[in-house]
Design goal:
By secondary structure, the chain is mainly alpha-helical. It has 13 helices and three strands; from the N terminus they run H-H-H-H-H-H-H-E-E-E-H-H-H-H-H-H.
């Protein structure tokens, strides 16, 4: 067997194979190559490569997709792309054993949390009655849940001093009191600024002065209140799915991944990996994670296209 070409050469030859020999549509070719890129990036992060990956390794990749809340249909499509890559490598005699032969796709029929499309989230935002006092607050809630991929408990406990408005970075305290830094979409920053300007007119209860999201009575919002807000907006927008605040978190992860964001970066933004210290995390990853969300989040993509 010949020496293995590096990934960029393999990628180029594979792309030509998809175009010339299989006659696939452009959209399918783009998706298959993106799947190969995503896997190659993940393997590099764990110290492996396309050629040395075995079934167990690939199953680890799929488990990571599942833990991110990626929809089963999206997982199945990615697995299909990976299998296409390894079939090509077998045809070209680049590997002797196909590690994807026993790689199973998720059961599509299994009931798992729904994922919202970008247009459905837009419809939810558009359904907010901005003539009501809580309208701007609810708009900021939706954009922050979706724009930052937060758990509902993390949203309820956000404080004003958790946001670095100049850098566009949010400090989040997650499970186990572990802290992480999350780059904020420009849309979520703008909506929070508008809400804070209106919040100043509310008489805030003692001990709640620093909380971002409060009720008209001046108390921080509860998980149940946020659940009700999200559910009501989904109904008002005509979204016929099982919706909760966590749906927006899953949608955040799915849309970033499908947009090409680094899997490890998404995991870090969601708080799925332990962080030794906030200072270390800041120095190592802030600019990288910021680039990931600014480049791949639908809210930022739409804004950049609009400004062209």
């Amino acid at each position: 067997m010949a020496n293995h070409p590096d990934y960029e050469i393999l990628r180029s030859h594979y792309m030509a194979f998809l175009t010339l020999e299989r006659g696939l549509s452009e959209n399918t070719r783009v998706n298959y190559v993106a799947d190969a890129d995503r896997l190659a990036q993940w393997l590099d992060d764990v110290g492996r490569d396309i050629y040395s990956a075995d079934l167990e390794c690939l199953q680890g990749f799929i488990i990571d997709l599942h833990e991110l809340g990626i929809a089963p249909r999206s997982q199945a499509r990615i697995i299909s792309g990976i299998k296409s890559l390894y079939r090509y490598m077998i045809i070209e005699d680049l590997i002797e054993v196909n590690p994807t032969l026993l790689l199973e796709s998720p059961r599509i029929g299994r009931k798992l949390p729904d994922i919202l499309s970008v247009s459905e989230i837009d419809d939810m935002v558009a359904s907010i009655d901005m003539t009501k006092a809580e309208g701007q607050r609810n708009r900021a809630i939706i954009e922050t849940l979706y724009g930052c991929g937060l758990r509902v408990s993390e949203l309820c406990n956000l404080r004003i001093d958790n946001i670095n408005f100049e850098e566009g970075i949010l400090m989040v305290t997650g499970k186990g009191d572990k802290q992480r830094l999350v780059p904020m979409s420009r849309t979520s920053l703008d909506e929070i600024r508008l809400w804070l300007a209106m919040r100043s007119d509310i008489v805030v209860k003692r001990g709640e002065e620093g909380m971002i999201f409060i009720s008209r009575h001046g108390k921080r919002l509860t998980r149940v209140m946020v659940f009700y807000i999200v559910k009501s907006l989904a109904e008002a927008a005509g979204v016929r799915k099982s919706i909760s605040p966590h749906t927006l978190r899953h949608s955040f992860a799915t849309h970033l991944l499908e947009g090409g964001a680094n899997l490890r970066a998404i995991q870090q933004m969601l708080g799925h990996e332990s962080i030794a210290t906030t200072e270390l995390y800041l120095h190592l990853d802030k600019s990288h994670l910021r680039d990931e969300i600014l480049t791949h989040h639908p809210r930022n993509i739409a804004r950049s296209q609009k400004n062209r």
